[in-house]
Write a structure and sequence with these properties.
Blueprint: H1 19-36, E1 40-49, E2 55-66, E3 70-72, H2 74-84, H3 87-108, E4 113-117, H4 120-124, H5 128-137, E5 146-151, H6 152-156, H7 159-172, E6 175-181, H8 189-193, E7 198-201, H9 203-206, H10 213-229, E8 232-235, H11 241-249, E9 254-256, E10 264-265, H12 266-274, H13 279-284
Parallel strand pairs: 2-4, 4-5, 5-6, 6-7, 7-8, 8-9
Antiparallel strand pairs: 1-2, 1-9, 1-10, 2-3
The structure holds ligand C2E and magnesium ion (3 copies).
The site of one magnesium ion has 4 residues, from loops.
Protein name: EAL domain-containing protein
GO molecular function: catalytic activity
Organism: Comamonas suwonensis
């Protein structure tokens, strides 16, 4: 009988929390604490115009540094934050920080666009466009300096509703970017229907350049399609000069990747902006004919 078993064993008879739920609750708590304690920060990774070596934009990437565990990669915690719903709070915070920082670049006289990742859950919030509008109104940043990065899958579910939202955001003057292009189960139809301003070619297609014939064909096809549609193209994850050269030869104009810089803290990124053209990226383009 239960009583004879003693207190400690009662839990055995209670409905058990699944290990998954428990760890999600712990993680959400940890993320909330990290944000409160200032252990979360937005870092910025430059996007570079290949021919001039100029920084034209920066992607805002969330960084969590735990005093004991060290750096926790967004690849590890964003998917869990999406499950728990906490990603809505995180994305809203990153957006505010990013808009504030980009307003600062503008005030410094070195305006570049800031490109912010938006998770599907955040994009689907009924008040998302209203909040976005308010963030811009309360900032010194004209909408043209902000871009939002969406994945293809966001546009698939409730396609009509999402298309409406995309149009509303474009109406504000905010740029819309398709992230990780080519990795989603997407139709290409949305590209001609929606006001997409930029496509980011997924790094999985860049990795094999310049040697892999398949990657070359895919990247070349994406670039010529984007050009025909009047959409800007950025190759992601460019690590070597040879990859950068291949992108340029395939008529690509922009890249983002360790070849120029990883994501760096805001102060460091400001410093690079004031230094003007970045040496590394200038090196990266030294093979190009000057025109
Ligand atoms: P993403 O949006 O596709 O971001 C690009 C990722 O590639 C970043 O990883 C970046 O650090 C990494 N990367 C950049 N250049 C190179 C390179 O040359 N080589 C290699 N191997 N990697 C490179 P990170 O920062 O770990 O972020 C991973 C993903 O987490 C992002 O992929 C994005 O989907 C998500 N994420 C990051 N910050 C946020 C955020 O604030 N909100 C949301 N919803 N998602 C975020
Ligand atoms: Mg991104
Ligand atoms: Mg990406
Ligand atoms: Mg990605």
């Amino acid at each position: 009988r239960v009583k004879e078993r003693g207190r400690g064993n009662f839990s055995f008879y209670q409905p058990q929390m699944s290990a998954g739920l428990l760890s999600r609750m712990k993680l959400e708590h940890a993320m909330r604490q990290a944000l409160d304690k200032g252990h979360m920060a937005v870092h910025f990774q430059p996007q570079v115009h290949i021919r001039s070596g100029r920084i034209v934009a920066a992607e805002a990437l969330l960084r969590w540094t735990d005093p004991e565990l060290g750096v926790i990669s967004p690849g590890a915690f964003i998917p869990l934050a999406e499950e728990s719903g906490y990603v809505v709070a995180l994305d809203a915070w990153v957006l505010e920080q990013s808009v504030r920082e980009a307003a600062h670049w503008l005030a410094m006289g070195s305006p570049v666009k800031v490109s912010v990742n938006v998770s599907a859950l955040e994009f689907r919030q009924p008040d998302f466009v209203d909040r976005l509008t308010r963030v811009l109104e309360n900032s010194a940043l004209p909408a043209q300096w902000l871009e939002l990065e969406l994945t293809e899958s966001i546009l698939l579910q409730d396609a009509q509703e999402m298309a409406l939202r995309v149009h509303q955001i474009a109406q504000l003057g905010v740029g819309l970017v398709i992230d990780d292009f080519g990795t989603g189960y997407s139709s290409l139809a949305y590209l001609k229907k929606l006001p997409i301003s930029k496509i980011k070619i997924d790094q999985s297609f860049v990795r094999g350049l310049p040697h892999d014939a398949g990657d070359k064909a895919i990247v070349g096809a994406i670039i010529s399609m984007g050009r025909a549609l009047g959409v800007e193209l950025v190759a992601e994850g460019v690590e070597t000069q040879a990859q950068c050269e291949a992108i340029a030869q395939l008529q690509g104009d922009y890249f983002q990747g360790y070849l120029c810089s990883p994501a760096v803290p805001a102060e460091q990124f400001r410093l690079r902006l004031t230094q003007g053209e970045v040496e590394e990226s200038a090196d990266a383009v030294s093979f190009l004919p000057d025109n």
